[in-house]
């Protein structure tokens, strides 16, 4: 009986979390951002303020999910983040990954799917925070490089979409191309979600038997010197993309084997 009550509560709390997220995004769009945009400041400063606003809202949202019993979380190596010109590359096991990452990075930029620019619950934060669309791949890469060269922080999921549990990673080359073209600080972040939930193959109501635990482990910066020296650059991008894919595959195997 106790397990049934717990399951029922978490199902309700998960639905409530989705509702809070959607309503919060809509209120940011119609109330908060118009107020911020009315202040006479430079556009770059407006974007930074909007990014900070999104970060705080995501921080409280993660705290809300934790307090109502949907999830627990653990962060290791947070001090390695939040540096100018830093490209954060991460695997993508669950729907809340980007929310979790941005909640700890006050001035983060990221790539957003084109369709979310037209969603009333997400378009406000996306437009005002200066996030980058994936609609035009070449423009996307150039915009990301420009952001990093100006001292911004980028978050990128090299897979381009959520992982499929039990299947090998298959990274797209965009993250590798951006890293090498910008000569950025590249910091890997490994995410794990146990039990698996909110994957691409699951609906929001298909919750696990217990609350999920999301762990974030920040690795050491990756050295790009050998890849930068390669010619042609297309070869360097392919090799670095393979390096990223192998790194995250090893991290996943290590966690599954030792729980580290």
UniProtKB/TrEMBL annotation:
<keyword id="KW-1133">Transmembrane helix</keyword>
<dbReference type="Pfam" id="PF01553">
    <property type="entry name" value="Acyltransferase"/>
</dbReference>
<keyword id="KW-0808">Transferase</keyword>
<feature type="transmembrane region" description="Helical">
    <location>
        <begin position="12"/>
        <end position="36"/>
    </location>
</feature>
<dbReference type="GO" id="GO:0003841">
    <property type="term" value="F:1-acylglycerol-3-phosphate O-acyltransferase activity"/>
</dbReference>
<keyword id="KW-0472">Membrane</keyword>
<feature type="domain" description="Phospholipid/glycerol acyltransferase">
    <location>
        <begin position="86"/>
        <end position="194"/>
    </location>
</feature>
<comment type="pathway">
    <text>Lipid metabolism.</text>
</comment>
<protein>
    <submittedName>
        <fullName>Lysophospholipid acyltransferase family protein</fullName>
    </submittedName>
</protein>
<feature type="transmembrane region" description="Helical">
    <location>
        <begin position="56"/>
        <end position="75"/>
    </location>
</feature>
<dbReference type="GO" id="GO:0006654">
    <property type="term" value="P:phosphatidic acid biosynthetic process"/>
</dbReference>
<keyword id="KW-0012">Acyltransferase</keyword>
<keyword id="KW-0812">Transmembrane</keyword>
<dbReference type="InterPro" id="IPR002123">
    <property type="entry name" value="Plipid/glycerol_acylTrfase"/>
</dbReference>
């Amino acid at each position: 009986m106790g397990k049934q009550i717990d399951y029922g509560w978490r199902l309700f709390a998960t639905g409530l979390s989705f509702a809070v997220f959607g309503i919060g995004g809509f209120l940011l769009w119609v109330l908060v951002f118009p107020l911020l945009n009315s202040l006479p400041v430079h556009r770059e400063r407006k974007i930074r303020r909007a990014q900070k606003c999104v970060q705080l809202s995501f921080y409280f949202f993660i705290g809300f999910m934790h307090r109502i019993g949907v999830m627990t979380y653990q962060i290791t190596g947070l001090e390695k983040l939040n540096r100018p010109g830093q490209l954060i590359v991460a695997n993508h096991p669950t729907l809340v990954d980007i929310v979790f990452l941005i909640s700890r990075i006050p001035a983060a930029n990221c790539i957003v799917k084109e369709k979310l620019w037209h969603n009333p619950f997400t378009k406000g934060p996306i437009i005002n925070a200066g996030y980058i669309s994936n609609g035009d791949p070449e423009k996307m890469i150039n915009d990301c490089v420009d952001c990093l060269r100006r001292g911004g922080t980028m978050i990128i999921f090299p897979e381009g979409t959520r992982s499929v549990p039990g299947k090998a990673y298959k990274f797209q080359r965009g993250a590798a191309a951006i890293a090498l073209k910008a000569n950025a600080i590249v910091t890997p972040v490994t995410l794990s979600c146990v039990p698996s939930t909110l994957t691409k193959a699951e609906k929001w109501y298909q919750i696990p038997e217990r609350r999920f635990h999301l762990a974030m482990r920040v690795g050491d910066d990756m050295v790009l010197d050998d890849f930068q020296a390669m010619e042609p650059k297309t070869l360097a991008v392919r090799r670095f993309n393979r390096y990223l894919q192998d790194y995250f595959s090893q991290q996943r195997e290590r966690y599954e084997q030792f729980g580290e």
